[in-house]
TrEMBL record:
The keyword DNA damage does not apply. GO terms for molecular function: ATP binding. It holds the Pfam family DUF87. InterPro entries: AAA+_ATPase (IPR003593), ATPase_Atu1862_pred (IPR014588), HerA-like (IPR008571), HerA_central (IPR002789), P-loop_NTPase (IPR027417). SUPFAM superfamilies: P-loop containing nucleoside triphosphate hydrolases. This is ATP-binding protein. Residues 483-502 are annotated as: Disordered. Keywords: ATP-binding, Nucleotide-binding. It comes from Metarhizobium album. Residues 24-310 form the AAA+ ATPase domain. The keyword Transferase does not apply.
Length: 502
């Protein structure tokens, strides 16, 4: 079925049509500097095509969440684990629900990881759910950068790989990529090259104008026209739009973004006592909780020294005979490893650092303690951290119920095992169910709302049953090991950290 949606008008007043069916097969690239109307174009496209095709929007600034009020898009908060996002994406495809993944408030590294996990979940869906989906990625240069930036290398590779799969291999799985970028020069070429439709807006840099002209098959001398385009004016080319470069003025939209361009406002009249207003503190300020920012972990110097010690010149190493390391029994090695692990976890800020960061600190301290032999692998380190954070004692650890809990925890992802074992330990001891704040700290977050979502995930995996008593207190039961917690107040404070429920 051929469906042409109205994107605006062309010169002469005729309607500018975009063939949705053709777009699903050929993909779209939108380029324009900030303020050129790029987000307005995407909103027009989404609104016009909403009745005809399922939509998924990767939204780094939270501008498109307003689509939910008018068109029923489900808003997915990016502040979730990678396993959660992958599972949600799979169910999005299964039930054919349009959604907006909002990444607002996350650091760029976290945004890239969340987007990669979600896109991979869409890509890896079962073949029976390969229905057509329009996947719109705003600010695509963030998720498919042409060069390495300040983000970690593994996050960049994850995000770039997911974007490459979307644009290069997504068509056979029903995924049609619509990517928008401020600068073509910052977008990975193998991602941009897979688009067959283009909408080019205002841009000023020579390198971007030249590349836009090349993509549209225009002469380099015509590239100057991109400087003169007004807001909302684009040049279209592609099988879904026009066989020749065609100027288009994007039409109006029904919904609006939460953010807007700044407008000039007259300054208020300055009161006579302005200095008193500024320098006199408000009494309420002293009642507000003080936000303590953790100082950076003093690891970098140690890491540099350890790196230098490992990379000694070969000539020096050959000249000096290597001293044999003293023999160390397995018991002594285990004692030192336990001591190093205890030192790291004794830091109150360790709960809010990633396992990868803690693991690097563990390796450095292990070398400083002269612990011989191969280092503990990351998977074993994560397991030991999870067990330590659960607070299990020797008597409980020696029981069959705890052995069953360790077997059960393999059914959840590694980053959630600490929370799972904390609940299991409380259930085996028949202690009060940990509060949301306590679960959040065990997960390494300040969000109590995310802790509640973890309980829902455990229930989906079939490893726990969550219910309440007559007073509304929470109980978590583990049917496989025959244990459950005593009733506990979900809103009780943690006692060690003041966690804010969202």
């Amino acid at each position: 079925m051929q469906v042409g949606i109205d994107m605006g008008v062309v010169s002469g007043g005729a309607s500018a049509k975009l063939d949705i069916e053709e777009l699903l097969a050929t993909r779209l690239l939108v380029q324009g500097n900030s303020g050129s109307g790029k987000s307005h174009l995407l909103r027009r496209l989404l609104e016009q095509s909403a009745p005809w095709v399922q939509q998924v929007v990767i939204d780094p600034e939270g501008d498109f969440v307003t689509l939910s009020d008018r068109f029923g898009h489900v808003v997915v908060d990016g502040e979730r684990s990678e396993a959660e996002l992958t599972g949600i994406a799979a169910r999005i495809r299964q039930h054919r629900v349009s959604c907006v993944l909002t990444l607002e408030g996350l650091e760029i590294d976290q945004q890239m990881r969340a987007a990669a996990a979600f896109l991979n979940g869409l890509f890896d869906a079962d073949r029976e759910f390969w229905y057509p989906v329009l996947v719109v990625v705003d600010e695509a240069q963030m998720f498919a950068p042409s060069v390495a930036g300040e983000v970690s290398e593994d996050a960049r590779k994850m995000s770039l790989g997911a974007m490459t799969n979307l644009m290069c291999r997504g068509r056979k799985r029903g995924l049609a990529g619509v990517i928008a970028t401020q600068r073509l020069a910052k977008l990975a070429k193998n991602v941009a090259a897979e688009a067959s439709n283009f909408l080019m807006g205002r841009t000023f840099l020579d390198i971007d104008m030249a590349r836009a002209a090349d993509l549209l098959g225009m002469d380099r001398r015509q590239a100057e026209m991109f400087r003169d385009l007004k807001r909302g004016n684009f040049v279209a080319l592609g099988p879904a739009l026009s066989r020749r470069p065609l100027p288009i003025v994007i039409g109006p939209v029904e919904t609006s973004a939460r953010s807007s361009s700044p407008k000039l406002m007259p300054m208020p009249e300055a009161p006579a006592d302005v200095e008193d207003l500024i320098f006199t503190p408000d009494p309420e300020e002293f009642n507000r909780p003080m936000v303590r920012r953790a100082p950076p972990a003093p690891r970098l110097t140690t890491d540099i020294l350890a790196e230098l010690s490992r990379s000694a010149p070969a000539a020096v190493a050959a000249a000096e005979p290597k001293a044999s390391a003293p023999e160390m029994s397995e018991e002594e090695k285990e004692t030192r490893l336990v001591a190093v692990l205890a030192e790291i976890l004794a830091d109150s800020e360790s709960a809010f650092r990633s396992d990868a960061v803690l693991y690097q600190e563990f390796l450095v301290r292990a070398r400083m303690r002269r612990i011989a032999g191969s280092p503990m692998p990351l998977s074993e380190f994560r397991r030991r951290v999870a067990i330590t954070r659960s607070g299990v004692d020797e008597e409980t650890a020696a029981g069959e119920a705890w052995a069953g809990a360790l077997d059960l925890c393999t059914r959840v992802s590694e980053d959630l095992q600490g929370v799972f074992l904390l609940l299991a330990c409380a259930a085996i001891r028949n202690e009060a169910c940990p509060s949301d704040a306590r679960l959040a700290r065990a997960y390494g977050t300040h969000s109590a709302r995310r802790a509640r979502r973890l309980l829902g995930y455990f229930e989906e995996q079939g490893v726990v049953v969550v219910h309440t008593d007559f007073s509304g207190k929470r109980i978590v039961a583990f049917p496989d090991i025959g244990a459950e917690t005593s009733p506990g107040d979900a809103n009780a404070p943690d006692g060690t950290e003041q966690l804010a429920a969202e």
